Amino acid sequence: MSETIERLKVESDDLPTRQKVEKIEVHLQENARQFQSVVEERRIRKDLVQVQLPVVGDRVDRNLRAFSTKLGSSEQQANQLLVYGARSDFSIAEKLILRYFETPDGKLVDAALKASSDAKTEITAIDGFSDDKNLLAEEIETFERIALRGVQATRSYLLFRNVVMAGEASEIAHYSRTLREDAEKQRHLIAQQADSSRKKVSLLTILSVVVAAILAILIAGRLAVAILPPITALTRTFGMLSGGETLSDIPETDRTDEIGQMAVAARVFSDQNRQTRDLLRDSEELREKLEAQTIELEATNEELDSFAYVASHDLKSPLRGIRQLATWIEEDAVDDFSPQTLDYLTKLKSRVAKMEALLQDLLDFSRVGRVNTKSEEVNLESLLQSIIEITDNPNGAAVTWQDNLPTINTVRSPLEQVFLNLIGNAIKHNHRGKDGEVHVTLEPKGKFHRFRVTDNGPGIAAKDHERAFQMYQRVGDQAVDGSGMGLAIVKKQIEYFGGTIQLDSLPGQGATFTFTWPVERQLT
Amino acid sequence: MKRNTRRNFLKTTAGTAALLGTAPYGFAVQRRVLRVLGTHVTLQESLRQQAQEDLGIAIEFQPGGSASIAHQASTRPESFDLYEQWSNSIRVLWQAGTIQPIETSRLANWNEINNLTKTGRLTSEAKLGAGDAPNKLLFVQEDGSLGGDIAERISYLPYVHNVDSFGYDAAQIDRGIPYETEGWGWLLDRKWSGRVALVNEPTIGLFDAALAAQDMGLAQFDDIGNMTKSEIDALFRVLVDLRRDGHFRGVWSSVPHSVELMKSGEVAIESMFSPGVFALKAGGIDCIYASPKSGYRAWHGVMCLSAQTTGASKDMAYEYMNWWLSGWPGAFIARQGYYISNPQRSKEFLSEDEWNYWYEGQPAQSDLKGTDDRIVVQKGDSRDGGSYEKRFSNIAVWNTVMDNYEYTLNAWNEFLSAV
Lengths: 524, 419
Known about the structure:
Number of helices of chain B: 16
Strand content of chain B: 15-25%
Distance between the termini of chain B: 84 Å
Distance between the termini of chain A: 34 Å
Oligomer: heterodimer
Structural class of chain A: alpha+beta
C-alpha cells in the first residue's frame, strides 16, 4: 500500500490531490498504530476473562464449600446460614460479571460489585474463624480486582475499536471520497469539452458536406473524398471520448491542417480519460490494501515476540567479552592495584555476572516454545537427583520425593527447567537452615500428571500470589537474590505444554506449587 | 605460559557456562525517580525541568493517550507513582484499588483550594453543572466510597481545570454576542453544513452534540449528565441523519488536528480545547471561543497517588503535589488558558497584565505570550467568556463517564460509520 501511495505522490502533478494522498497516508499510519492497541487490549481481556477470572472464581467457590463443610455441626447453624448467603451472593456476582463480558453494560458491573460486597459482609459477620474469614475475604477481593481489570480492558478495547480506529477510518474515507469526487468532476469536465467539440465537428461536418456537395458539383467530388472519411472518424472518436473511453490510436494526428489539430485535441482528451480511470483504480486499490494491511499487522505482532529473544541472545556475547577482559586486567596488573581498584574490579565482575544471569533469564523466558525438543523416556528420580547436584544448597535443606517415582515419556529439558526453578526457589528462600524441607509428589489426573512441590519456607501472602508469576516481580524477602523471572519462566513453560500451575501458601506456613504436565505431549 | 592457559580456558568455558543456565537470580536496583503517568496536557517538558530544579529530585514523565494510560493505571499500579488525568477516570481506579487516599494534612496549601472542587460551585450563585462535578468524587467517605461530604482523606489532588465550548472562525461566521446569541445549537445549524467537526471522544464530544441537539429542540434529556438508552438513541438518530446529509466534515482526535481543520478552511465551527484556540489566534486565524448561553462543558484534572507507592517515593510524590500548588506551575498553565485550584498563589508569578487578562477577563494592555514564547494575545483583546468567576458560574455539564458508557461507544461507532 505504501508503494501505491508513494507512486501516487510522485505521479500526481496536481498539488491538492497530492496533499490528500499524503493525508490518507498519515491516517493510515495512525490507524495501523491503533490496530496494535486493539490487538493488545483483546489479548489482555482474553487472559483476564477466560483464564484468570474462572480460576479465582472456582477457588472462592471451592473454599466456601470447604468452609461450609468445616462448620457442619448443628451448633454452627447461624454461621452456616451466613456462609450459604455468601455462596449465593458470590454466585450472583460471578453470573453478573460474566454477563457483562457477553453484553457490556456498566450497570451489571455495579450490581456484581454490590453482590460480592454483600458476600464479604456475610463472611465478616461469621463468629470466630478469623483465619478462614480473612482468607475468603481476600480471595473475593482478588476476584473483584481481576473482574474490574477485565471491565477496563473491555472498555479500552471498545474505545480503540469503536471510536479511535473508526475516527481514523472516517478521515481516510473522507479523503478517498473527495479524491473520487475530484476524479468524477474532472471526467465530467472532459466529457463536456469532448461533447462540445463533437458538436462543433458535427456542425463542421454538415458545413463540409454542404461545401463538399457544392464542390462535388463543381470539382466532381474529389475534395469530398479527401475530407469526409477523417471527419467521420474524428466524430466517432469524440463520441467515444465523451463516454469516458481511452483510445490507443487517434486517427489523422499526422495532418497539419484543422483536422489534424482536432485529432491532437482528441488525443489530449484520451490521455486525460486514462489518468482519470487510473485515479479511480488507485482509490480502489487503496481500500483493498487497507484490508491486506490488517493481515500484515498480525504478522508484525509475531515479529515483536521474537525481539526479546534476539536482543537477549545477542547481548550475551559482548558481556562475556567484558567479563573476560576484566579477568585479564586482573591477571596483568593485580600487583599494581590499590585495594580500592581491586574492589572496583571485583564489583565489575560481579555485576557483569548478574547482568549475564538476568539476560539468561530473559532468554529462557523468550525461548519457551522456540526450542524444538523431542520426547524421550525421563526417569523422574534421576531428573530430580541431577537437579540437586547442580543446585547450590549452602544450608543443606532436605530435598525429598515420594517413593517409586515413575519413568515418563516427555520433553526432558522444559520439565527439568520447571523443577530447577521451583526447587531452586524453595532452597533460596529457606529460612530454617538444616531443618528446611522441599518435597516433590506426583499423582495422575486424567490426561495429566499432577506434581506438587511443597516447602516449609517463609510462605507467600495471598495478595502476592498472582504477582509472583509475573515477569520481573519479586515477592518475599527482598534480601534474597533473584531476578523475578524464575516463576514467570515456570508458568510460561507449563502453559506452553498445556498445563496449569497454582500456588497455595500463607505467611509462615510454607508454600505448595501444584502443576499439571501432559501425559501425551500437547502444545497451546 | 600459565597466563595463556588460563586465557584459553576462559575463552572456551565462557560460552559453555552461559549455556548451562542459572537458577533464578538477579539484584534489586534502588529506585530514586518519581514516575508520573499522564497526558500531554500536563506532562510538559518545561514543567518537568522546573520541578526537578525546584525539588532536587529526578522526575520521569510517561505521557500517553487518555485510554491507554487509564488502562495502565487501573491494571499496573506498580508502574507509576502519580497519575494525572481527568476526574471522569477516578471511579474505575478507586474501585480497582489501584490508587490510595491522599492525606490533606500533608498538603501545605490545602486550605487555599477554592470552592469549585470542594463544593462544585465557585461561588454560591454559580450554576451547578450536570454529571460528575469534581466534589462528588473528591472525599473518601467513612464506608470507603467517594462522595461530597468533607473528609480529611481525598482521592485526588485538585489542580488544573477549565471550561470548554466550541470555536468558530469569525472570517466565515458572523461574531455572536457571548452568553446571549452564542449557543451550542450553532454546531447543528445547517447553514454550516459540511464545515462542522466534533471531538472524537464520547465522554466529551457526546455532550457537545447533546447540548447542541437540546438547544435546537431536536432532543430532550431528563439528566444530560446521565442519559438513558432511549435518550442516547434519540440523540444519535439526529446525528446519524445529519452525518448522512453531509453536515459533519468529520471528527478530530488531537488538538493539532482541530487546529489544522480550521486553519485549512475545511471547518468553520467545531468542538474546541483552549490550547487549540490560542494556537489558531497565534497563527492569525480569528477563532472565537464561544460562550454558550446554556453554559459550558467543564472538566477537572486530577492527580492520584498509586496504591503501591510507599516510603521515600511517597514522600517525593507529596513534594511534587505540593509543588503543583506552590504558584509557578499554576502561572505556567494559565498562559495556555487553564486554571489552577488555588489561583491566588499563582498571581505573584504572573504580570499584572497577564493576571487581569487570564483570570479577570480584562482587555490586555500589551501583547501577551503563551508558554512557547509565541504571542497568543494581542494588545486590546479580552478573553472569550470573561473572567474565571463568570465562566465557571455557567457550567452546563461536566465531562462524565455515564452509567451507559458502553452503550455510547457503540452508538458513537454507528455515527462514525454512517455514510
